[in-house]
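Severity: low
Component: inverse-folding endpoint
Summary: output formatting inconsistent between runs
Steps to reproduce: submit the following structure tokens with default settings.
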């Protein structure tokens, strides 16, 4: 009768143990993969309130090389800032030739810029003409609600020659679907609700900041705002390119997010006296 050696028994058990171990590992992977994927998806969505003007431009429209060229009119340099910049070196910017600024005041109906006082007052104190902007989230509350929240929290206007009209920053959604889940007609109605409410509260037509590609996708290239609302167009390239329908020219052009001192730099389409004229209405 053959003798079964202990080593042979161990060898016989190894395939069964290996198979069991492989099965357990596979089951563990199935359990952990969904949560890992969810964590990765969550990590790509920024925290509410952190959105800033032009945040989606490079990702969606790309970025050219070189300084802007081919502008026929005198251009006056400006910057836009948010809590992303923190305390801003306004004297440095002023000495470099920056003469106007826009400061983020609000987002949705849930966020106020935590650096607002330093940025808004600081730009004024060095001599700049300044204004404020609102980052729109059309999927959270109505246009009227957000216009009122903006005006009540830094978005007001006064005819002092130093305060620019408020800006509706309407662009790609950093928190989800780029058009905020709205149809093109629904987006146009939301924007109209905002600008009508803003004018009723302040007496001024809000400036609309947008990118041409977003405007085409999310409003159907609606031409209904060009006659009343000044255009601030976003395009990071050597030329401003195509403008959204309804506007024959831009009032402001955000041409880079990588400028000196503060990244977001802009041209005002005219000399400094035209900036003052916009401030005065």
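Observed output (run 2 of 3):
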């Amino acid at each position: 009768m053959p003798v079964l050696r202990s080593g042979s028994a161990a060898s016989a058990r190894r395939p069964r143990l290996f198979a069991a171990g492989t099965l357990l590992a596979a089951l563990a992977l199935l359990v952990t993969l969904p949560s890992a994927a969810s964590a990765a998806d969550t990590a790509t969505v920024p925290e509410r309130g952190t959105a800033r003007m032009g945040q989606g431009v490079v990702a969606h429209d790309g970025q050219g090389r070189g300084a802007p060229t081919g502008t026929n009119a005198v251009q006056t340099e400006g910057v836009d800032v948010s809590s992303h910049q923190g305390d801003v070196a306004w004297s440095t910017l002023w000495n470099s030739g920056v003469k106007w600024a826009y400061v983020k005041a609000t987002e949705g109906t849930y966020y106020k810029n935590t650096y607002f006082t330093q940025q808004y007052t600081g730009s004024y104190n060095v001599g700049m003409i300044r204004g404020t902007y609102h980052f729109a989230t059309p999927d959270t509350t109505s246009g009227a609600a957000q216009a009122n929240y903006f005006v009540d929290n830094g978005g007001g206007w006064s005819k002092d020659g130093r305060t620019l009209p408020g800006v509706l920053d309407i662009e790609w959604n950093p928190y989800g679907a780029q058009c905020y889940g709205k149809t093109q007609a629904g987006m146009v109605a939301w924007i109209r609700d905002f600008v009508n409410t803003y004018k009723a509260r302040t007496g001024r037509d809000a400036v609309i900041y947008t990118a041409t590609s977003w405007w085409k996708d999310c409003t159907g290239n609606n031409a209904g705002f060009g006659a009343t609302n000044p255009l601030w167009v976003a395009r990071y390239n050597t030329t401003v390119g195509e403008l959204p329908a309804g506007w024959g020219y831009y009032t402001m052009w955000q041409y880079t997010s990588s400028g000196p001192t503060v990244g977001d730099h802009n041209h005002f389409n005219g000399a400094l006296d035209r900036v003052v004229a916009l401030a005065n209405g």
